Amino acid sequence: MGRAIEELPARHDGRLPLVLIACSGGPDSLALAAATAHFARRGKLRVGAAIIDHQMQSGSADVTESTARVLEDMGLEPVISRRVTVDRAGHGPEMAARLARYDALNDIARQTGADAVLLGHTRNDQAETVLLGLARGSGTRSLSGMSPRHTIDGVQYRRPFLNVTREETEEICRAEGLDPWHDPSNSDTTLMRSKVRHEVLPWLEDHLGPGVSNALARTASVLNADADFLDEQAAEFFRRARLDPAASSSENLELDGGAVQAAPAAMRRRMLAQACVAAGGETPTFERLSALEQFAMGYGAAGPLQMAGKVTVWRRRADKHCAKGRLEFHGTA
């Protein structure tokens, strides 16, 4: 916890760093708010909060209002509540809510000039995330679970509680005299994460012995460092394969087909994913990235290949500059 606070960058205006707690009113985020408020009382930083009402459950406005009062009583300032509309088009309910939540958090962080947004994910959440990634057959990045820190559209997010268990956040709430809200959707086993939480992980603990959740969380920690290193190496491969980057717009870029094909498989997949993002698209799913890799290697139809985020990839023929042709990534602004 202390490390996440101490590593906040110094502000140019000389004021103490401002962090926002993304708080649902549940035990994890309330415990995080209480712990972070302790640092504020010691003059280490300023602490505010952002409460997002997804309007997906009856009574959500009341939960938002009562949570805001609790946080204000802790001394958090500012405490900002935001009501969002969850657009489920093309997404499941969990992903749709997540997208709406992060859009709102980004907006509030910019509005307040916050240096970081703190998320209350715990070691239990990390174990669930790794297991879900494993079930989907994802790569190293997905199996590395949730990163302790990441950036979305220029906003820093940190997860100080990844080494704290859900049982410990409940204990913090009891010690602080807090009465957290328990989201009923967390018990809805028709949702995949809830099924993993209430059925799959307990079954594994019963049949493989206690400690499975901790082992999964440790796996995430190790793989996270590995994935970071591999991404850094892939960025260098991407830089070298890119043709005349100074002349390419942010939505259009070209890669030397020979450089892509010659790259080690672990690098090739990552550099292709980075190209999609650089062209203004999204990180491809495992299936779409596999299709893009085959396309880049010269297999299958001539294209073009459509990627998520309105990015189209074209495969051009060899010329005197690129003996094995080139890949063109065209994004739509």
Explain this structure to me?
This protein folds into two domains: 2-217, Rossmann fold (3-Layer(aba) Sandwich); 242-331. It is built from twelve helices and ten strands. It has 333 residues and is an alpha/beta fold. Helix 2 (27-41) packs across helix 7 (166-175), helix 5 (123-135) packs across helix 8 (192-208) and helix 11 packs across helix 12 (286-296). Helices cover 48% and strands 15% of the residues. The strands form two sheets. It has a six-stranded mixed beta sheet, sandwiched between helices.
The N- and C-terminal alpha carbons lie at a distance of 39 Å
Helix content: 40-55%
DSSP helical segment count: 12
Assign the structural class, choosing from mainly alpha, mainly beta, alpha/beta, alpha+beta, or little secondary structure: alpha/beta
Strand coverage percent: 5-15%
Strand order of the largest sheet: 3-2-1-4-6-5
Write the layout of secondary structure elements.
Elements: H1 2-6, E1 18-22, H2 27-41, E2 46-53, H3 60-74, E3 79-83, H4 93-112, E4 116-118, H5 123-135, H6 140-143, E5 149-152, E6 155-158, H7 166-175, H8 192-208, H9 212-241, E7 252-256, H10 257-262, H11 265-278, H12 286-296, E8 305-307, E9 311-316, E10 326-331
Parallel strand pairs: 1-2, 1-4, 2-3, 4-6
Antiparallel strand pairs: 5-6, 7-10, 8-9, 9-10
Helix pairs in contact: 2-7, 5-8, 5-9, 9-11, 11-12
In short:
With 333 residues, the protein is α/β, with parallel strands linked by helices. It is built from twelve helices and ten strands.
